[in-house]
Write a structure and sequence with these properties.
heterodimer; A: mainly alpha; B: mainly alpha
Chain lengths: 44, 224
């Protein structure tokens, strides 16, 4: 029972880690892109 | 194109999550960890794809001396590094469930670790050379040499040495041996992640090009 619980915790952690990594990075890119677009239009 | 983004976010992504988390049958021996298969393998595939695209842009730079290609090569190498880290971390946690240890020096684990080190050196190289032309040339040559190791590390070595990993998706007999439900969910997950990669690639490349443009604008102002 305890092993099954531990495995479930690991499975959930892996999927959350991948999703956080991919979507978190995507969100970071999106935010940076918006920021730099406004900076470039101001500079140029 | 705009509608495709919404189709992806509100239809494709929820379907992938539903299929991979709830609908999937559980494989004997893997138990609940079967679900990890639909996330771990696609990120490993995207790592290889990113490094391949980075090598193509590097070759393009060497042929045409186009600095945009150099920046795009760096952008894709960044994504490749992200996906390699995710594949290594998720693989390590999965190994804890199925093999009992976080790290087992399995040929595939070792290969991806070497690949990570090779591409970390690529970024060290980029940050250590100041002259733009020299940096781009050296990085492009290094990127091509680095990619030459990818088929060897990812496809050859794990097939030559004894491995704890199961048979590759396409095994030595040239067959895909998995139940049809799992095969379809796996295929759907691969498409979903590749689709997501297209957006990440677009944003990452655009960001690198804009950062470079901003830098050039500042330099021009300083010269005046």
């Amino acid at each position: 029972m305890e092993e099954a619980y531990n495995n479930l915790v690991y499975v959930t952690s892996i999927i959350i880690a991948i999703c956080l990594g991919v979507f978190g990075y995507g969100f970071y890119l999106f935010r940076e892109l918006r920021k730099i677009k406004s900076e470039v239009s101001r500079e140029g | 194109m705009k509608y495709l983004k919404y189709i992806f976010i509100f239809i494709v992504l929820p379907i992938q999550i539903y299929l991979a988390i709830w609908y999937t049958p559980v494989v004997k021996g893997l138990g609940e960890s079967t679900r990890v298969f639909y996330y771990h393998v696609p990120v490993a595939w995207l790592a290889v794809l990113s490094f391949l695209i980075s090598a193509i842009y590097s070759a393009q730079f060497l042929r045409k001396r186009d600095f945009k290609a150099d920046l795009k090569a760096e952008a894709n190498a960044r994504l490749g590094l992200l996906f390699s880290v995710l594949a290594t971390v998720s693989g390590s946690l999965w190994a804890k469930i199925t093999w009992g240890d976080l790290w087992n020096w399995d040929p595939r684990e070792t290969s991806i670790l070497i690949l990570l080190i090779i591409y970390l050196a690529y970024f060290t190289l980029r940050s250590s050379v100041e002259d733009e032309d020299r940096k781009a040339t050296l990085s492009a040559v290094y990127s091509l040499a680095a990619f030459a190791t990818v088929p060897l590390l990812i496809f050859v070595i794990p097939r030559v040495y004894e491995s704890l990993h199961p048979d590759p998706i396409l095994n030595e007999r040239g067959k895909v041996e998995m139940s049809s439900t799992i095969r379809w969910i796996f295929l759907f997950s691969m498409i979903t992640f590749t689709w997501l990669f297209v957006y990440l690639k677009k944003y990452q490349e655009e960001l690198m090009l804009l950062k470079n443009r901003k830098r050039n604008l500042i330099l021009e102002k300083l010269k005046k």
